What does this fold into?
Amino acid sequence: MRLLFLAVLRRHTGNAVTAQRVRDHLEAAGHVCILKDAFDFESPSEISSFIKAENLEAAVALHLYRGGRLLQGNGIPFGIIFGGTDLNEDVNQGDKNKVMGKVLEEARFAVAFTESMKETAQRQWPHAKDKIYVQSQGIATVPNTAFNWNTFLQCSEINQSADNLHVFLLICGLRQVKDPLYLVDAFSEWHQEEANVYMVIVGPEVDPVFTREVKAKVKRSPGVRLIREMAQEDLHAVMKNCFALVNSSVSEGMSAAILEAMDLEVPVLARNIPGNAAVVKHEVTGLLFSDPQEFVQLAKRLVSDPALEKKIVANGKEYVRKYHSWQEERQTYRQLVRTLERSTED
It folds into this structure.
């Protein structure tokens, strides 16, 4: 079957990584899957022309609003994967909420990453409850074995021996919902007490205005560094070498970076929001903080308590192995896409 896959494909963002992984699943099942950026199309009529020109038979969209609304009324069966901001942010805007409800009426299936995302969607659009499935993100990490950590530290202007260094890594696109500045002041204060702790923020410049604000703030904050986005394999290598992964988002669907860190046996400190609390169990698979001061307390505790670090790393690795199987994710999407195949035969 010839499939259109619509997603927001900003390089090196969680959505782009998820879209590429799901596309691989569908192509492995023998489908031709054309992955397109939702921002390349302005209206359903543009999508309609593309569908005809490419002779496409069905579609999948990642993000109910940004991708899903473009597929409405095009006469081909489609399924939806919730992104995160669609259920956490867009749902609170009346017009968008109404559009998303209509999209769900037409969709053959919808995939939520967590039970809580499914519950949110069911509360908003009860008519769609029988077509919403839960499938966690499947995780596979591939660190670049040739990656040089010391060179990375030099490029990040961290001129210290790697031996006694504690690098806290924050991976996010520079936009307000990811709140990369949330911990900067508190972390900078800590760095001035203990010069061997650093926070490195890595990610693409998504919002140009906000990016300028982030750069200006980081520039005047000792112990905090900002690095441009990097290839997935290099990012996994950085993750593997850092002391801990940090997530300070205001809202998340399901953070792939958190799950990748667990898979790479790196401890996770995450802001206590529903999307993060769905995968990080406090003091079991990671540590959850509610404000910058609590983050610093927990980070200090992690640095000084190797037994705690060892415990949460082992539990995190086991959690990902058990609940975020890449093979299981592949099987789910294969089965769901078969429902679209049957629709094209009707």
In short: The first strand starts at residue 2 and ends at 7.
